[in-house]
């Protein structure tokens, strides 16, 4: 786990001292979002995009050059550019983790983004290619490994560990001293009690509450709320013409 940390104004920040040029791997919705956030809330300058050749359609994306991944080191040399792999949880995070390995193998440093509207305590350690959206709270001693996405509004409790290549959707509550295993997906509004360990390759569906540790490769699905047999108009005693 490659970790970097620095302090700015009492809060943790991953923003580099010198402005760096950034190439984003991907040309989908997350790539567009990442470009927006890096451009307007970090010192990075997004100068281009790259995708695998079979997915190349056109030579520009968002008004910037779009190149095949096998040409990225020529067009955007790793000596002068950082990279960010902007892929979500496709195939249980395997696509993002594979591309992360490719760009690291080419010699790139992968950028980490932390929203200026997130609260990240100065004892937090973050790896490369981490994306922390707004309204996340990362408490004392939290460790987030390489290639993790924390969508908006999550609470990561003290001393918890999120291992590599995980994806947490919005409004997840991870209590203290928890561990989330590699490649796991955690859905919206999931709650983990203190000292819970989630094994690698798990899928924890929306709204699930885990009160004890679980093994590897498991899927937990929350119960969908059933509609009442009484419709809303009848419930409020409304006439058909109201």
Keywords for this structure?
single chain; 242 residues; alpha/beta; Rossmann fold; 2 domains; 6-stranded parallel sheet; 4 helices; disordered N terminus
Rg value: 20 Å
Quick one: overall form?
globular
- Range of helix content: 10-25%
Low-confidence stretches: 1-13
User: How confident overall, as mean pLDDT?
Assistant: 93
> Helix and strand string, N-terminal first?
EEEHEEEHEHEEEEEEEEEEEEEEEEEEH
The CATH superfamily of the largest domain is identified as Hexapeptide repeat proteins
Question: What name is given to the CATH topology of the largest domain?
Answer: UDP N-Acetylglucosamine Acyltransferase, domain 1
Major sheet: arrangement of strands: 8-11-14-17-20-23-25
What does this structure look like?
- This protein is an alpha/beta fold and 242 residues long.
- It has two domains: 18-111, Rossmann fold (3-Layer(aba) Sandwich), CATH 3.40.50.20; 113-215, Hexapeptide repeat proteins (UDP N-Acetylglucosamine Acyltransferase, domain 1, 3 Solenoid).
- Helices cover 13% and strands 26% of the residues.
- The protein is built from four helices and 25 strands.
- A seven-stranded parallel sheet has the order 8-11-14-17-20-23-25, with helices on one face.
- Strand 1 (7-8) and strand 2 (11-12) form a beta hairpin.
- The longest helix is centred in the N-terminal third of the chain and has 12 residues, at 29-40.
- The radius of gyration is 20 Å and the shape is globular.
- The relative contact order is 0.11.
- The model is unreliable at 1-13 (pLDDT under 50).
């Amino acid at each position: 786990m490659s970790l970097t940390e620095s302090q700015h104004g009492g809060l943790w920040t991953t923003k580099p001292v010198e402005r760096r040029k950034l190439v984003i791997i991907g040309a989908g919705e997350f790539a567009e979002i990442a470009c927006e956030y890096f451009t307007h809330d970090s010192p990075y300058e997004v100068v281009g995009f790259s995708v695998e050749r079979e997915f190349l359609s056109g030579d520009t994306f968002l008004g910037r050059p779009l190149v095949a991944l096998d040409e990225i080191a020529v067009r955007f040399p790793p000596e002068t550019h950082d990279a960010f792999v902007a892929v979500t949880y496709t195939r249980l995070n395997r696509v993002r983790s594979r591309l992360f390995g490719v760009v690291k193998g080419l010699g790139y440093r992968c950028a980490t983004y932390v929203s200026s509207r997130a609260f990240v305590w100065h004892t937090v350690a973050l790896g490369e290619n981490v994306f922390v959206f707004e309204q996340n709270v990362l408490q004392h001693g939290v460790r987030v490994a390489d290639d993790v996405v924390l969508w908006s509004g999550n609470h990561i409790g003290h001393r918890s560990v999120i291992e590599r290549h995980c994806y947490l959707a919005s409004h997840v509550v991870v209590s203290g001293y928890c561990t989330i295993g590699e490649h796991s997906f955690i859905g919206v509004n999931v709650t983990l009690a203190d000292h819970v360990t989630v094994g690698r390759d798990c899928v924890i569906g929306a709204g699930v509450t885990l009160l004890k540790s679980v093994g590897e490769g498991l899927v937990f699905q929350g119960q969908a709320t059933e509609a009442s047999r009484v419709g809303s108009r009848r419930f409020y005693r409304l006439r058909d013409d109201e």
